[in-house]
């Protein structure tokens, strides 16, 4: 490198002192680089700001080489970027890293005009800026974007971003996937999303949303059912928050997440159903405890009082009479215990064997058993039960229930008219309902409704009333997952409706 | 002795016997009338009224009975009690120690004087028949 570069000579000779001072002393980092045809890079001019910024000592300046400061890798790249400059290009820009004695590793960007002289020297005139902070921000942003992108794709949660001014929404692929949708379905506005919300959940959803828009809540949260592409409903939890407001403080942008909480909700429903079953069983248990305590204590009370009397009784005939009463009480107690045992059997073996039973078959069987009573009382029987009408029930319970309702209808028939019993089967709310209707005495439900199915309750002046049948019947039906309803009018008749559970 | 005309309303015939014996053994000189359910007892009161007789002085009332139970009897009694020539003292005598029955009795404070739990003792009967001392 014997020849002084053309550009430098030109600078020194042609420009006045003013320009020299200006260029040398302004705080911008001004430089001139020169590349010889043999590939040597030199820096004929560096202004004071460069020298200070790059922390170059006088000593270093004397035979300064750019590679002393620039990271070796980056120096090679810088060199080749100048070498590969196109002949027609008059602009050069390059980013590189330099290691500075006290400032450490910094990122720089150099921009320069390109000139070529007749000796094939390339000269670059330009300035350098420290872009370390920008670079760092870029890198951090890139990392965070990558992280976000990863989170968005990997997470089962969807992400949404709503522009309130346009009503346009960005839904992440996962948001769409929850509803079995893709980008092709073009769900890009709030309306298109909202129209998939279950009608019963829409009002609460809009209320929750508007409360946050009005800043009444710190964040928006709402769980609702939404229709998927295949037409099923899923439970979706939306959470979000206003992240941008205009100069008047009005919200302009909201972002948040979508979570599929269907299985969670299904669990909740299952737990609720279980707790209902438990509550039901508890109340039946309590009811049973009352029945036991009441029915047993009325007998034991008699024992106590009768034994008290015997102690002080001298008349032998009266003593015998008391013994007779004790015997009666003892028999009644045995009977009660039998009934309670039956009740325990029904209620404790919750998993009774259910079978698919042909209702016609069982009804005919029961009517056969009762044929003598039916003909003696001239009872007219009407049946409207479809052929092959099957119900899932315990066979002996079904027989006992049909027997009970039929004998009741005969027992409480109206003295002034021919007894009629109608049996019919139909569907109500998807459940099989057996209706047994009579034209008998009827029951005053206002008076007796609450105790109709109670133990030892009778309502008619009938010598054969024991008040156990309906009670056992109700327990049998309920233990099979069904229920029973009654309609009745005094002197008109009674209709019992038995609802069967479909589960086998 | 204040109570001369006494109704015992209970479907248990053994209890009828016991009451008779207890009264006899304790020298309470009264011959109660027995009714097996609430309806018969109401009819008994009404027929007394129809004949222009005084209503009974005292009623011992069971709760669990067929046709009209103790509560239903009290409902019917409420309707006619203003037409009665004099007040009737009513005691519930039941084997039910069920809390719901106890608190239900409180709803009939104007009609029911007290609640006795079976088995009934001679002492209980003496207390009832010594009222007012």
Automatic annotation (TrEMBL), chain A:
Reaction(s) catalysed by this chain's protein: ATP + protein L-histidine = ADP + protein N-phospho-L-histidine
Residue intervals of the Histidine kinase domain: 287-504
Documented EC number(s): 2.7.13.3
Keyword annotations of the record: Kinase, Phosphoprotein, Transferase
InterPro entries: HATPase_C_sf, HATPase_dom, His_kinase_dom, PAC, PAS, PAS-assoc_C, PAS-like_dom_sf, PAS_fold_3
Domain PAC: residue ranges: 220-273
Domain (PAS) ranges: 144-216
GO molecular function per UniProt: protein histidine kinase activity
Domain of life: Bacteria
Keyword field contains Transferase: yes
Pfam families (UniProt xref): HATPase_c, PAS_3
NCBIfam families the record matches: sensory_box (TIGR00229)
PANTHER family associated with the record: PAC DOMAIN-CONTAINING PROTEIN, PHYTOCHROME-LIKE PROTEIN CPH1
Name this protein carries in UniProt: histidine kinase
Source species of the chain: Flavobacterium dankookense
Taxonomic classification: Bacteria, Pseudomonadati, Bacteroidota, Flavobacteriia, Flavobacteriales
TrEMBL record, chain B:
Superkingdom per UniProt: Bacteria
Keyword Nucleotide-binding: no
Residues found modified as 4-aspartylphosphate: 62
Pfam families, A to Z: Response_reg (PF00072)
Keyword Phosphoprotein appears in the UniProt entry: yes
This protein's UniProt keywords: Phosphoprotein
InterPro entries membership: CheY-like_superfamily, Sig_transdc_resp-reg_receiver, TCS_response_regulator
GO biological process, one term: phosphorelay signal transduction system
Descriptive protein name: Response regulator receiver domain-containing protein
Gene3D superfamilies: 3.40.50.2300
Residue ranges of every copy of the Response regulatory domain listed in the record: 5-133
Organism lineage: Bacteria, Pseudomonadati, Bacteroidota, Flavobacteriia, Flavobacteriales
